[in-house]
Design brief:
Helix 13 packs antiparallel against helix 14 and helix 17 packs antiparallel against helix 18. With 398 residues, this protein is an all-alpha fold. 75% of the residues lie in helices and 3% in strands.
Amino acid sequence: MKIGIIVVLALFASAFAAHFLLSDPGYVAINFRGYLVEMSVPVMVLLTAALFAAIWIIRKIVVAPRRIGEAAGRYRSARSGQKMTRGMIEVAEGNFARGERMLARAASTSDSPLFNYLQAARAAHLQGRDDRRDDWLKLAYQEIPEAANAVLLTQAEFQLDQGQHEQALATLRRLDENSKDHGHALALMGRLYFQLEDWSALREILPRVRKHGQIDAETLAAWTVRIHREQLEKAIDADAVLTTWKGIPKAHKSDITLLESYYQGLMRAGLHERAEKELAAALKSDWRDPLVRLFGKVEGADASKQLKRAEDWLTNHSEDPDLLLTAARLCLRVELWGKARSYLETVLSLRPSPEVYQEYGALLNQLGETDASADAYREGLGMIAGTGLPAIPHITDQ
């Protein structure tokens, strides 16, 4: 419809122009530097139109190569995008080898080859082909150097997935050298140090990890507690134990694992009286089973006084197995064999354990009841093994 209207208008315009031009074609004379050019108006119009047409054609010819190149680029990019998409689909469907090949072929013509290389590396990783995986990552690193951090992080994650902890640590340290305080790299490094139980290295980077906030507060607290626990367990003398405990944040001093390590450190350093006093105060404000057990291991200056305190607690905790075991141990220290036996037998009736059977067996052996002692040891070993052990026949004279 639109083209028809244009044609009709052109015909009318042509007819109108012909009516005037044919009746009087006009005359044009151009005089330039002694040259005279004469022509009619229609001829001048045609020459002018031809000049504009020639200019338009020349312009098209000049820009044609660029336009062709752009069109070819768009075509190649579209084809590359299709191959990349198909490759991603193949990988997602489990066809890792085919997906890797398609992603690799699309990389040379892709507008974002980094993505192709990383995905090809992932496909190789899923096949367990670490050599090809590392080759794709190396290509990505060489061809897109500005993406070095992304490549190194991807490599570290692959290595962690394969359990290659030492290699992953080397990769993360390299990344840390290239880009100091990279949040995600520090988070991965912290998790890796925790798995490797490298507490000194974890303690060193912990402030930087905490600063970037990529690890949740609960995990950070667990790491902090574990680091301080290790320091307490390695403290070799009284000064080291007390200094380490003083440096622990107040918020963590109520953690039961830290308290156990602290009191064990005091006992290891010979500060039994201090441990006894502080344990008694701690149990008065907060009754906690691990601390009750530790109270029975403290070698206070007056074992009888220590036993009396434990028996006073029995008034309100008469069926507490941990307190009964503690009382039994204190009775053993003051050589109250009968009372110790009574306490241990009560503990065995409430909550038998290898630890209690060991104490009971040692007591029976002390009392000369060797057969009963052997049975107690056998019961304890049976609990550790998970099945009961047969009794050992007694040796008789032939």
